[in-house]
Design brief:
By secondary structure, the chain is α/β, with parallel strands linked by helices. The chain has a single domain, classed as TIM Barrel (Alpha-Beta Barrel). Helices cover 43% and strands 18% of the residues. The chain is built from 9 helices and 12 strands. The strands form 3 sheets. An 8-stranded parallel beta barrel has the order 1-2-3-4-7-8-9-12, surrounded by 4 helices. α4 packs parallel to α5. The longest helix is centred in the last third of the chain and has 28 residues.
């Protein structure tokens, strides 16, 4: 079991601004921790600033960034990284994660662009990650992302991810839905990919819904309920790696908080089932 090493535990929910007032007044019972994008909350004052502070004083939080642009060819925005550090320190948030992608060059591209799977890109990203960790005085975690093209590819996706994590000596945000989406779009086995990831680097996980554009083209939207094959892959991850903290992402078509709580409760029930199964196995060993 890996759980004692995790900075958070249980099942979590991405906290959107439209949910926060209800979450303060009627906390969803299945949610053990929350995730926010720091870009959406840095410098926010007034009513929403007060509501956010009320939440961070009561619940564990993690941050999942949108604009670090870790793979960008442009210079690292160190001023932005320092603003993130101030935000993390203010709210006593230990976990900061980002996408293994890039979102800017001379300006913001407003999308998660695929980093070329090359040795040169491994070294470029790892150097930038080490600098970010130095400024933040924290380890960060990179998320395996969905992608729809692989320009200039020299390495397999799994080999690229593992090389970056090793050279940068950073952690992994394990997005189960992204593995499933990529496995359909790029024709590989999702379980084989999952099992090739480094369990010891997983800090927490994501599940989400996606849009079916065609049988062989899924779009990672975070705008629908989680489907059974993704739940099955999460169950396999718990069996392979042990139970890790897992968060539900929902970024648009947002249903009532009660409905989101039901999906988070399903995560929590899966975690409890796998923990009890592991405990029984250990008792009989």
């Amino acid at each position: 079991m890996h759980e004692p090493r995790y900075p958070i535990r249980g099942a979590g929910l991405g906290l959107r601004r439209e949910l926060i007032a209800q979450a303060v007044e009627q906390p969803p019972p299945a949610v053990s921790f929350y995730e926010v994008a720091p870009e959406n909350w840095i410098g926010v004052g007034g009513r929403f600033g007060r509501l956010f502070r009320a939440m961070t004083e009561r619940y564990p939080f993690v941050c999942h960034g949108l604009s670090l642009s870790i793979g960008s060819p442009a210079a690292l925005d160190e001023a932005f990284v320092r603003r993130v550090k101030d935000f993390l320190d203010t709210h006593q948030i230990q976990v900061y994660t980002e996408h293994l992608s890039y979102t800017s060059d001379d300006g913001q591209l407003y999308d998660l662009m695929p980093i070329p799977f090359t040795e040169a890109a491994v070294h470029h990203v790892a150097e930038r990650v080490r600098r970010v960790q130095d400024i933040l005085e924290r380890r960060i975690a990179l998320e395996n992302v969905s992608y729809y093209a692989a320009p200039g590819q020299q390495l397999r996706e799994i080999d690229f991810i593992n090389a970056v994590l090793t050279e940068a000596d950073c952690d992994l945000l394990l997005d189960v839905n992204n593995i499933y989406v990529n496995s359909i779009n790029h024709g590989y086995d999702a379980v084989d990919f999952l099992e090739a990831l480094p369990a010891e680097r997983v800090v927490y996980g994501h599940v989400a819904g996606h849009y079916v554009e065609a049988p062989d083209l899924l779009v990672d939207t975070h705008g629908a309920a989680v489907i059974d094959p993704v739940w099955d892959l999460l169950a396999h991850a718990y069996g392979a790696f042990g139970v890790f903290p897992t968060l539900l992402e929902r970024d648009f078509n947002i249903p009532p908080l009660e409905q989101l709580n039901a999906e988070v409760a399903r995560i929590a029930a899966m975690q409890a089932h796998h923990e009890s199964t592991a405990d029984r196995a250990a008792a009989h060993a």
